[in-house]
Amino acid sequence: MIGRGFYDSAKVCVALHMPSSTFLVVKRTDLDVQSTDQLETLKHEVQMLRSLHHPNILPLYSTFIISQELWTIFPLMSYGSCADILSESYRDGMPEALIAAILKEVLQGLDYLHRMSIIHRGMKGGHVLVGNDGRVCLSGLRKSFRLDSNSSGSKKAHDFPLHAVDLLPWMAPEILKQDLLGYDCSADIYSIGILAIELAHGSLPYVGLPPTKVLLEKLHKASPSLCPTRSDASDTSTMHTTTTGTDTGSVITSLEAPASNVGQKKFSLVFHQFVDACVQNDPSLRPTSNSLACHSFIKQMKKKSPEILAELLTGVPRLTHRQEESSALGDMDVMETDLAAMSLDEWQ
User: In its UniProt record, which GO terms are filed under biological process (predicted)?
Assistant: First the structure.
């Protein structure tokens, strides 16, 4: 087992698909302990994933029920989530090059969702997964919402996601207002800005505040931003240069957490501009996912994002390496038996 999910009621395990010798992730969710709302959420997530097909959306290979458990089969994203990478290797935040490479892929997936009239509503580091080849996939679609045109022809949502307290730091103010104006896909752009801050600082705005205080801060205070210290784009005094022409930062390999230096970090002006554009309180002023993909902060990448990510993540431990082998593959025997008769082609 490599983790837990769905309000701690699901076991996330690594399994070997014997016919293809491919490692997979099996999420085993106990259905007997779910409320009616939670069962509807599971159903929504499975239906949503089955309807989506894009390189930057985590594919769902198959679902089936064994005993009282729902088994959902996904590819193994070897580096885990961006939250995992921050926790393991970049506790004071990632370098800008790595952030730009990740966000470029995230924006491609998000643009696909928005073209399908889908609001993700859960854009956070824990829902951005990175594979062994540097591919980035969005997950966490259980809170997603598909927009429908109203009588005036505009597409607005007035639905507030259930059990979403854990998403408060990333959630746009207009969702929290729950007023007649509603919200649209621009709410995800606000979340992209918070995600960028999370990746840059290694921590979130409003950290340590109770939910009520976070809500009040979002509704009545100025938007969050990167730490105030700025540098121009040529300042690389604390960065290492690679063949990509971008900084790599440093990778933490020790288990001992270093002292935080967020207040000492310097970010380029173009990165500040990117974040500030995303987290504007007025949703009509935020750029679209497509226009953000053309922002100077994203366009600075000289290579394709997966190539850059594969280089920048050198030295970052992969998911299975973070667990003892007996623990990570402890359920392999039963999974091999149950998965042996299936092929990847059949799942898709």
Answer: protein export from nucleus
Task: Identify the pLDDT of residue 264.
Answer: 65
Q: Give the span between the Cα atoms of 158 and 264, in whole angstroms.
A: 41
Tokens of 196: 């960028």
Spell out the residues 6+ positions from residue 58 whose beta carbon is closer than 8 angstroms to its own: 49, 74, 75, 77, 129, 137, 138, 139
pLDDT beyond 90 at 337: no
* DSSP H/E element including 4: strand 3-5
pLDDT of residue 304: 79
Please state the φ and ψ torsions of residue 266, each to the nearest 5 degrees.
-120, 135
Per-residue model confidence (pLDDT) at position 228: 65
* Per-residue pLDDT, 137: 98
| Cα distances (Å, whole numbers) of residue 138 to 53, 111, 121, 135, 181 | 12, 12, 12, 10, 28
**Is there a contact between 150 and 107 (Cβ–Cβ < 8 Å)?**
no
Q: Does an H or E element contain 201, and which?
A: helix 186-201
Q: Does domain 78-147+156-227+267-321 have CATH number 1.10.510.10?
A: yes
Q: Which of 45, 25, 51 is nearest to 332 (CA)?
A: 25
Buried b (16+ CB within 10 A) or exposed e, 30-40: eeeebeeebee
pLDDT over 70, % of the chain: 78
CB 278 within 8 A of CB 286: yes
Q: Sorting pLDDT into bands at 50, 70 and 90, what band is 221?
A: confident
Q: Is the pLDDT of residue 251 over 70?
A: no
Give the predicted TM-score (pTM) of the model.
Answer: 0.83
The residue ranges of every structural domain in the chain are: 78-147+156-227+267-321
Q: Is the pLDDT of residue 223 over 70?
A: yes
